[in-house]
Amino acid sequence: MINDILKTFSIREQNPGASDGIDFMPGSGDRITVWSPVDGQTIATVQTVTRTAYDAVISRAESAFLYWRTVPAPRRGEIVRQIGEALRIYKDDLGKLVSYEMGKSLQEGRGEVQEMIDICDFAVGLSRQLYGLSMHSERPCHRMYEQWHPLGIVGIISAFNFPVAVWSWNAMIALVCGNVCVWKPSEKTPLSAQACFRILSEVFKRNDLPGGLCNLVQGGKDPGAWMAGDPRVALVSATGSARMGKAVNTAVAARLGKCLLELGGNNAIIVSKDADLDMTLMGAVFGAVGTAGQRCTTTRRLIIHESVFDRFTEKLKGAYAQLKIGNPLEAQNHVGPLIDKDAVAHYTNALDTIKKEGGTFIVDGGVLEGAAYASGCYVKPCIAKVENRFSIVQTETFAPILYVMQYREIEEAIAMQNDVPQGLSSAIMTLNLREAELFLSAAGSDCGIANVNIGTSGAEIGGAFGGEKETGGGRESGSDAWKAYMRRQTNTINYGRDLPLAQGIEFNI
């Protein structure tokens, strides 16, 4: 199956080079072995970019920008529309590749490609709505307004857990804004990135577009570090850990560049005594075990009112007992593998720390063994009763570990929800209007995303996505997130015969 899909996207062991308006990785760097956590099988080897090759890619992107910025935005939108149509054609094959290479369920793999299609549709409409404001001048016969221009090269650093969707959030918006892109995907999921570029290649070739509009540089940490320190890269959009984000932000800030950060999450659902517990169960379980706990929006904490704590945790135990763990390409399985054995080690270390800090397990964890789990990357989703102050609860473990704790008053629950370094997604389950409105008020959740009666996971592209505190403060995808990819310019036109100065200043000569 996987070999047929690789042939569909013309992905070979040998580096495919640059073609049809796409730069992959000219040059001869080291090679990375790509293997699947689904079955532990080697898929391919990928050639990494050298510094010389990276510089060549950036130079070509600079030249492409000089052309692309002059193309009318609606015409740029038409190219993105065609990309969306091409993704519709390849949705099934690309979804399977994402699932097999990363380990998420096939439904989630296809859903990730659907996110790409959705952001293309959003960007097409946006291409006719890059609005500026008109202001009244204090001077007679003057008109003031603002407009938005493209930045130049947008560097995109993406993470393994969403091998293609988060890149598209950035790239499709950047393209309609008139920018060109250089993408550094995770070295753990490079083949999905190559497949995306094959799809773009068809569209660019059909429209006789020049090379360098979109570029792919693959490797470990080096290409990302080069982009962060490169003044030719106007904006670096980075998704990953807080540690990585701080390093990128420091390098970009040193050259006074622009940075958009989407970092870790430590997301909580408050379960009120007035919650619909059946609805809550669905949101909590999917949020906690979807993508094997490897989403930045994964539900990691449940803050449950003491009056319903025992009843709801019993419901959780029953739901967890029904989870099927195994090959994510088989539809009956709910939970696939972690990305690699390093992730498994982080998971097992977290379990040990929970015990040391005094936590107890409502549902036990552990690493699964046997022929069906031969990759060594399958683990049991678990539930631990803890206190919010535990150091392990304050950190983000990228694994299906759910922490549960109790509260008495809603203000206490909100304080607990906010009392972590991260601030991405949050939710409250309640039928009490006062509680819901308090949670959404300035005295409520301090996260970039705050939901009522839905879980923390599963954002739509129409809303701006991102968070506060150690989550980085960036916003991607919908709403007015497009402004991060453009520079604002204020314009004043004097159509009179005199030159009056602002603030009534007189300067006679």
From TrEMBL:
Its EC number is 1.2.1.3. Keywords: NAD, Oxidoreductase. It is an enzyme of class 1 (oxidoreductase). Pfam families: Aldedh. Residues 26-490 form the Aldehyde dehydrogenase domain. The active site is at residue 262. InterPro entries: Ald_DH/histidinol_DH, Ald_DH_C, Ald_DH_CS_GLU, Ald_DH_N, Aldehyde_DH_dom, ALDH7A1-like. The keyword NAD applies. It comes from the Bacteria. GO terms for molecular function: aldehyde dehydrogenase (NAD+) activity. Homotetramer. Belongs to the aldehyde dehydrogenase family. This is aldehyde dehydrogenase (NAD(+)).
